[in-house]
Amino acid sequence: MLPKFDSVFSIDCVIFGFEAGELKILLIERNEEPYKDWLALPGYIVEQDESIDDAAERILYELTGLRDMHMQQFHTFGEVNRHPQGRVITVAYYALIRINGQKELRPVTQYAKKAFWHPVSELPKLAFDHSEIFNTGFNKIRRRLHYQPIAFELLPEKFTLTQLQSLYEAVLNKKLDKRNFRKKMLSYGFLKELDEKQKGVSYRAAKLYKFDKRKYGKIFQGEMTIG
Amino acid sequence: MLPKFDSVFSIDCVIFGFEAGELKILLIERNEEPYKDWLALPGYIVEQDESIDDAAERILYELTGLRDMHMQQFHTFGEVNRHPQGRVITVAYYALIRINGQKELRPVTQYAKKAFWHPVSELPKLAFDHSEIFNTGFNKIRRRLHYQPIAFELLPEKFTLTQLQSLYEAVLNKKLDKRNFRKKMLSYGFLKELDEKQKGVSYRAAKLYKFDKRKYGKIFQGEMTIG
DNA sequence: TCAAAAGTGTTTTTTATACACCCATGC
DNA sequence: GCATGGGTGTATAAAAAACACTTTTGA
């Protein structure tokens, strides 16, 4: 039979958002020991009767009020002493979401005082090994941006090509050539040009585009190269 | 405080080898319930006082007699019912090794009757969700082969360009053009041509090459594209 | 001398890069 | 009318792909 251990699995979530040309990440202020009052990634313990994917959804909801995020695990952290109170192995997940499309952030449980967006530049020291978890996750999505259409998960449904480009530039941390970027993006054929323009700007309004998931699926089996 | 759960972490290892132009994987025959007598990936339970990376090394050693493999985790499997006797979350690791450089396979514990190499084509149904774990791992290394120098971990220290190419072909499951392959590989500059030739073949002996890790490190920060 | 694999270049096509000016709009 | 970002094309360079024959060796 299986041994009985006092071992615990947890989930930690690295949730990226994009707002005002800046890449942000979702943090909570802890309301529990250890690391009470510290900033941390949203994370908690997996129950015995839920899969880790389900646990990730639930935990994020409880700590931030956000639901139905599409999260993907990216790494498992299993050092013996990563949690001061015992053996806790944590599976880290990431998601990319539209900040504006979301209602306000409101923790449902008492474990977090609040949840809020913080720019990825100038992150403070986080609780546990969460700074390391964040870095690993950031590197993953940076890599993935090159060959998967994850950028569109961060933008509003309708976006301009300039917004798309500035997102790429923010994540990859480098400038891209405007003409080449647009040429390549449009050449893939999965962007649908809308009959609509940007509103409320004090300069020439840009065309709006939509990501066409259907077409993407037909064209690619998950491959592209940008940046 | 942390709750007490009857939860267990385990490690499963997907170990690839290359022999006779064929990609192989290391399997064990189980000597324990559940799935007694079934074929399975080498895997076992993580102790409370060891990191998951350490556990992976230990477990592989105990089940196969292989030591000092450089393993990397690639995914964590956490469905509730993946183990019939209770909640077990498993972290899957892979490694690529030289079959010929290794001594014989000899399990150190009683949990495995034997360990052996099996071609990745025509794998039988494995215990637990190990078939799924294998598939996930195989896809990972197939992806990684494109941009990381992992092929050299599978070949003997000295190898011919044809051996290298046939390894790429076996993993990617497609034919590559000989001239283009050689041109590109050599252009990277991390292959060292030796003053030595193949022996014991009944045809023109090919030059032997070595992977120059030093040069690779200098030239790349982990990037290349082949296949 | 034959079988088997080693070794070798050139052309074409595709993809990436570099680069600068006029346009439309709101204030 | 001016400030702001929107929008556009071409030329060059680099990389990838297609393609077939001669050489060496051992048996």
Question: Care to describe what's here?
Answer:
The structure is a homodimer of 227-residue chains. Helices cover 28% and strands 28% of the residues of chain A. Chain A folds into 2 domains: 8-145, Nucleoside Triphosphate Pyrophosphohydrolase (Alpha-Beta Complex), CATH 3.90.79; 158-219, Winged helix-like DNA-binding domain superfamily/Winged helix DNA-binding domain (Arc Repressor Mutant, subunit A, Orthogonal Bundle), CATH 1.10.10. In chain A, a hairpin with a 2-residue loop joins strand 1 (7-19) and strand 2 (22-30). Chain A is of the alpha+beta class and 227 residues long. In chain A, the strands form 2 sheets. In chain A, strands 1, 2, 3, 4, 5, 6 and 7 form a 7-stranded mixed beta sheet that branches. A two-stranded antiparallel sheet of chain A has the order 8-9. Chain A contains 6 helices and 9 strands; from the N terminus they run ββββαβββααααββα. The interface between A and B is medium-sized, with 31 and 31 residues.
